[in-house]
Amino acid sequence: MRYENPFYMIEDAGAADLISNGRLQLGISRGSPEQVIDGWRYFGYEPPEGGTDADLGRRRAEVFLELLKGEGFARPNPQPMFPNPPGMLRLEPHSIGLRDRIWWGSASNATAVWAAQLGVNLQSSTLKADESGEPFHVQQARQIRAFRKAWTEAGHTREPRVSVSRSIFALMDDRDRMYFGHDRSSDQIGFIDNMRAVFGRSYADEPDILIEELKGDEAIAEADTLLLTVPNTLGVEYNVHVIESILTHVAPALGWR
Fold this sequence. Notes:
It is built from ten helices and ten strands. It is an alpha/beta fold. Helix 1 crosses helix 3 and helix 4 packs parallel to helix 5.
């Protein structure tokens, strides 16, 4: 969000949601770490005094969410080219209900709580700040619980949604084994944007073993939505095979719909 114009984004998001008949699920975040020094200079934006580009992204997200309410805020031109409705004007097109389908991509417990207070859904990927030294899925589950607790305390009336992302591959044939049979990985620790981060493992094994491993993933159990990351460089046909293998041989045993 740090380089997005919230006003333009409202117009684009509203149009996309109306065109899709209210099916847009829009994920936003502060943005990935800078590839260049002071990248904001090249886009004409500057972090708030004493703040960071992450602060800039969150501030723009707050403006975006406020505008999504569809409340009038701008005085109409008394001599417009086209007639205006009475009262203050809002951004158009306005899509009712889109505000409830915004997701914030969070990498820390603190930003998950912030998202809950704002009343947006939580999207937690395969990376988060290493805040306790515990396995990734344990820390992510704690992040989700902190989000839900903050949501309840904020007094929101609707039920929030939470998604987590995983790389999961059921080894069904020799092609699967060639691509992923060696990928019995574990969590990895690294540093990104001066933050110690834990990267979640990939799951790749025979379906029966995969099922047992996934049963032990605390964050998947806490979430209501699972996003699968797929190897798009291997083509559409292979990705269909990857997804169908999980839907057919793994999902039923875990109660996934």
